[in-house]
Amino acid sequence: MTTDYKVGLALGIGLAVLLVVFFVTRPRRLPSSAPAQSSQEVPTQQISPPVPAPVAGPNEAQIQVPVPAPIEPIAPSVPPPRPQRVHVVREGETLSDIAERYYGTPNRWLRIYKANESVIKDPDRIYPGMRLVIPD
Predict the structure, then answer these.
(1) Quick one: average pLDDT of 54-73?
(2) What residues contact residue 56 under an 8 Å CB cut-off, 6+ apart?
């Protein structure tokens, strides 16, 4: 090895070691959204556990405290599901004709076929009176 190569290698390794030491030992910073801590500590209020109410004796009147009803979470409003569209096949219709009627293009016939595979055995043979579900 030449001397220049050895010096460059030694400097590169030394620089890598310095970078590792720098990034490992530096203090971590809080995210910018976290409030900065000041040098003075703010005293915190300690909450003591609740003290049980004294039990009323036989001659003392009992006080009834109303207990609030539990709050039920409000479910997000979800629109009710749309009813399934059903098409009754007429004589001479094909899946492409039906797709063009409902989707505006005959190229979506495969969607109708996939949704009705239990009814349609061969996509080229559909018969009048078959009830086909038209997916959205």
Answers:
(1) 68
(2) 62, 63
